[in-house]
Automatic annotation (TrEMBL):
This is Pyruvate flavodoxin/ferredoxin oxidoreductase domain-containing protein. InterPro entries: PFOR_II, Pyruvate:ferred/Flavod_OxRd, Pyrv_Fd/Flavodoxin_OxRdtase_N, THDP-binding, Transketo_C/PFOR_II. It comes from mine drainage metagenome. Keywords: Oxidoreductase, Pyruvate. One of its GO terms (biological process) is response to oxidative stress. The lineage of its organism: unclassified sequences, metagenomes, ecological metagenomes.
Length: 340
């Protein structure tokens, strides 16, 4: 990072790391940190603070076997339920799930842009097979990177304003911001509920408006969130859903099933929260059955799908593995073949 005018700091623990990036982001820097397992639990309160104070941060979570220390070097996808229901209270957050090293790079750019534009926490949900592995990847297209910093006010913008409101109510839930230190700006930030100026407020009318403003980002930001990908036969009646590093075994399983005359269509969601119902609904409508492949015991993404599009409940089947190892294609081929 120093070669690109960036800064790397080693924090003493996860509590320090999350609060350091909150402070740096509030000061106007573009920031991210990373963690896994218990470290994510320690960061949870800080992420909630960033959500309430509308401070843009990015956290990369390398999911591993849990709970507690679990198996630190083994693979699992069991953090999703925690991330989707992160912290106490309600606040906007976005969860992106890359599936390859190339997507890790691309979706990190997306995560930083989304955090800055919508002033909200964004989590990159990785897994052990992605975080600690060796692979061959095509060169990254650095020329294609587009940076979005959101609605930032300059000194010239402020001169035209009669007053500055750091949490101004707007039509699309996004408030323009001027970082502290900008000439002519006085601003206040707090994790307490606040009014448009950042002053602590317990006014019920203001509370309703602020909650609607913040949570409205979950809808307004949908066009900016990474779209899912589709593989296989477009008109196949057997669907497969999987995120993260399950993509490799699923693609191989599709080829094996095809040789047996079993045609499938695979949907790879790249945004997990908010759950992409606008993508899931037509996909599930087009198939007779859909197998959700994930590395956890309770079928966490399948549960979120059922909550979002409950009318497709009967079509969903879970293929689960939670022994600390990644899927292999036979683990997917077998239950689908048996279900035909």
């Amino acid at each position: 990072l120093p070669a690109f005018q960036g800064v790397v700091r080693q924090a003493e623990d996860e509590l320090a790391a999350i609060n350091m990036i909150i402070g740096a982001a509030y000061a106007g820097a573009r920031v991210m940190t990373s963690t896994s397992g218990p470290g994510l639990s320690l960061m949870t309160e800080g992420i909630g603070h960033a959500g309430a104070a509308e401070i843009p941060i990015v956290i990369a979570d390398c999911a591993r076997v849990g709970p507690s220390t679990g198996q630190p070097t083994r693979h699992e996808q069991s953090d999703l339920a925690h991330l989707a229901n992160l912290g106490h209270g309600e606040f906007p957050r976005f969860i992106l799930a890359p599936a390859t090293p190339l997507e890790c790079f691309q979706l990190t750019v997306d995560a930083l842009n989304i955090a800055d534009k919508w002033r909200a926490p964004v989590i990159l949900l990785l897994d052990q097979a992605l975080c600690q592995n060796t692979t061959t990847s095509p060169p990254y297209d650095l020329a294609g990177i587009h940076m979005v910093r959101g609605r930032r006010l300059s000194g010239a913008d402020l001169e035209k304003m009669t007053e500055y409101k750091g949490y101004a109510f707007t039509a699309n839930s996004g408030s323009p911001i001027a970082p502290p230190g900008t000439p002519g700006v006085w601003s206040q930030v707090t994790g307490n509920e606040h009014d448009e100026w950042g002053h602590v407020s317990v006014n019920p009318e203001n509370r309703l408006k602020m909650m609607t403003k913040r949570m409205g980002k979950m809808v307004a930001a949908v066009p900016d969130l990474p779209a899912g990908k589709y593989f296989g036969e477009p008109h196949a009646k057997i669907g497969i859903i999987g995120y993260g590093s399950t993509i490799g075994p699923i693609l191989e399983a599709q080829e094996r099933l095809k040789t047996r005359g079993i045609h499938t269509r695979f949907y790879q969601p790249r945004t997990l929260w908010p759950v992409p119902g606008h993508e899931l609904d037509p996909f599930l409508h087009a198939v007779d059955v859909a197998y959700v492949v994930e590395n956890n015991y309770t079928g966490q993404f399948a549960r979120l799908i059922r909550e979002t599009v409950p009318w497709h409940h009967a079509k969903l089947r879970s293929i689960l593995r939670y022994d600390g190892f990644s899927f292999r294609s036979p683990d997917i081929v077998r239950p689908i073949t048996e279900g035909v």
